[in-house]
Amino acid sequence: MPRSIGKLRLVMALVLATAAPALQARDAASPAARPGPDTAANGEVYRLGPGDKLRITVFNVESITGEYTISSGGQVAVPLLGAVRAEGATTQQLADAIRTGLDGTYVKDPRITVEVLSYRPFYILGEVNQPGEFAYKPNLTLEQAVATAGGYTYRAARKKAYLRRAGEDEQVVKFGRESRVIYVHPGDTIRIGERYL
Question: Which first-to-last residue range defines the signal peptide (predicted)?
Answer without folding.
Answer: 1-25
